[in-house]
Hints:
Layout: H1 7-42, H2 47-80, H3 95-100, H4 108-116
Helix pairs in contact: 1-2
The chain binds zinc ion (ZN).
Amino acid sequence: MREDINLETFRKRLEERQKIILAGKEAQKKEHTTVELDHARVGRLTRMDAMQQQAMVQAAARLTDVERQRIQTALSRIQSGEYGYCILCDEEIAEKRLEFDPSLLTCISCAKNAEKH
Ligand SMILES: [Zn+2]
């Protein structure tokens, strides 16, 4: 367990972010319904536009799913005392990196490696 970083602060930030994502997912559902209603009523969107819009909504949803999963993993690692260690090489993750994004699960060198592949 890391004693050089304030786990409680990171836990709070992760929980806040989790709430925002869940709220965003709800909003997304509603927005999506509105788009479809508008489409039916006005008939202004071409099929192409509608498909493009749908793809964008899906891409955004995927992104939040990935982040939500990362946050969940980070929170469970706080509980098990593994938080702050890279999931790939077990090295400590720099505190600055966690401050930037508390849901990051890898150290800088593993992240750079992943980018290359
Ligand atoms: Zn690493």
